[in-house]
Write a structure and sequence with these properties.
single chain; mainly alpha; 17 helices; 86% helix
Length: 518
């Protein structure tokens, strides 16, 4: 129950952020649609965001948390010294990286970010400008991620989970201002870029204040590669590939999709929708699980670590499987309700909903990765996930290049979920093979109940969708569309919950009966 409360705390903060993110995307769809400015902003923002996930959340957080947990268990002063050393190296390294990237920005846009944007066109020039404005966001968010790792190790989760909401609030304000004063879309793109930069500063300040209240004061000094820092870098290097695998795939997919008008923004809108359950479930579990596992392993409590792993995987599958089924069945009315306004037309809805239905198939895989990787990181093993991540990147690139010419952005989504399932299966099998997870049999017995309940729920949703054609169409008033989708989602949740409870209850009765007869 204690771990469940921690999951719920992070999930609540993440849900608040994601809901504001939906409002942001709705306004952005109204203002920009899937036109050139939307392509430019999404391509430009994805570049620093990818580096943030790779160097901050994906690498340093995964490697830093187990090491800091070990320090804080022994001595608070040594933990503070370690955090100062890491913060100094991280800050000056990111500062140097930012200067280099800014200098070579036109070259990077041409060859890395969006090679499909023709040099000399306004689309190319604006991508260079917006990426240059937003790239310093990397430094702010990387430092915030490191401080957030300290907070989660100290079992303080809410500030870390809720900090991203400020990015969405600022961008919502800019989009509302642009709509009210009817600004030119290219100017809207520039204002959004500056909003991202300002939001990064605010999020860094928020996490720093929370850390200060927790009794940890971080100070910058001349960077020194001490023994602790070198150990961190050794662990972080393979984690750069592992922790940021989803972002690597997204960056590569953006590169490929830039060859077709509207493909980049279509993928971004679909990604925003499936990121809601992925963020609420996956981020909540990974944020809590890594420090909890690290602490359990440090004191030699292997039974507790095994229970944590089982409960985490069961939790993510319990929630992600029905979400995947819902995306498969009612993605089109959901996309229409949230985005089909202004510049976002019916054709955009059809494209984005088809991509979202594909993403739904990969949702359980991506949340499984979030729940399985912390077990490796808690044992300071970043090499094994790196190998599996490399394999999945190869799968993604190969399939994306093969499928994009024939299936457009939908082909990229197929490549991405295939890579995700490849990664998840390899992680799952390896944990069992190494005996790092011994209580997995109980989970395997419950998976059929999850799948059967989700299948029945999907069948009911499909049947209801056929009988509610008008209330779910664009001809129906907005209030009717909202109430109809709300009714469908509420009914689906109720059906799934009742079926899960019934099937698991029956399974327990069968097990007890077998035990008695034996």
């Amino acid at each position: 129950m204690n771990v469940a409360k921690k999951f719920a705390t992070v999930a609540l903060g993440t849900m608040i952020s994601r809901l504001f993110g939906f409002i942001r995307e709705m306004l952005m769809a109204m203002a920009l649609g899937t036109g050139p400015v939307a392509d430019v902003f999404n391509a430009a923002f994805r570049f620093p965001n990818t580096f943030r996930r790779l160097f901050a959340e994906g690498a340093f957080s995964s490697a830093f948390t187990p090491l800091f947990a070990g320090k804080i268990e022994k001595d608070t002063d040594s933990a503070r010294q370690f955090s100062d050393e890491v913060c100094s190296v991280l800050f000056f390294s990111l500062l140097f990286l930012t200067v280099i990237i800014e200098f070579f920005m036109p070259f990077l846009v041409t060859h890395v970010i969006a090679p499909g944007f023709v040099e000399g066109t306004r689309k190319f020039e604006e991508t260079v400008r917006l990426t240059a404005i937003m790239f310093p966001y990397l430094t702010c968010m990387s430092l915030a991620a490191m401080m957030g790792s300290i907070l989660t190790t100290l079992h303080r989760y809410f500030a870390v989970a809720v900090a991203p909401v400020f990015l969405n609030i600022i961008l919502i304000g800019i989009l509302a201002y642009a709509w009210f004063f009817k600004l030119d879309t290219w100017h809207v793109g520039r204002f959004l870029a500056w909003g991202v930069m300002i939001a990064g500063i605010i999020q860094l300040l928020l996490v720093w204040i929370a850390l200060h209240k927790a009794g940890i004061k971080i100070s910058l000094a001349f960077p020194r590669f001490t023994r602790n820092v070198r150990r961190l870098l050794i662990l972080a290097l393979p984690a750069i590939i592992t922790g940021g695998i989803t972002q690597v795939n997204l960056l590569i997919n953006t590169n490929i999709a830039s060859a077709e008008a509207g493909a980049v923004s279509s993928l971004a809108y679909a990604d925003r929708l499936y990121q809601l359950p992925l963020g609420i479930v996956g981020i909540a579990v990974s944020s809590v699980l890594l420090p909890e596992l690290a602490c359990a392993l440090r004191i030699g409590n292997l039974a507790e670590a095994d229970i944590l792993q089982s409960r985490s995987v069961e939790f993510v599958l319990l929630l992600s499987v029905p979400a995947a089924a819902a995306f498969l069945v009612i993605s089109e009315p959901i996309v229409r309700l949230l985005f089909e306004y202004g510049q976002f037309n019916r054709q955009s809805t059809m494209i984005v909903s088809s991509i979202l239905s594909v993403y739904g198939l990969g949702l359980p895989a991506f949340v499984l990765i979030k729940a399985l990787i912390p077990t490796f990181f808690a044992r300071e093993d970043t090499l094994t996930p790196m190998v599996f991540a490399t394999i999945s990147v190869f799968v993604n690139i190969s399939l994306a290049l093969m499928l994009f010419p024939h299936h457009s952005a939908k082909g990229i989504a197929i490549a991405e979920i295939t890579a995700g399932w490849t990664n998840a299966i390899l992680l799952f099998i390896t944990l069992i093979w190494r005996a790092h997870w011994k209580s997995y049999q109980m989970l395997l017995k419950r998976i059929p109940a999850f799948l059967a309940s989700a299948a029945v729920m999907a069948a009911v949703l499909s049947l209801a969708k056929e009988h509610l054609t008008y209330p779910l169409s664009e001809e129906a008033p907005l209030a009717i569309q909202i109430s109809t989708i709300g009714f469908l989602i509420s009914s689906a949740i109720l059906i799934y919950a009742v079926l899960i409870f019934f099937l698991l209850k029956v399974a327990r009765v069968i097990v007890r009966f077998k035990n008695k007869t034996c």
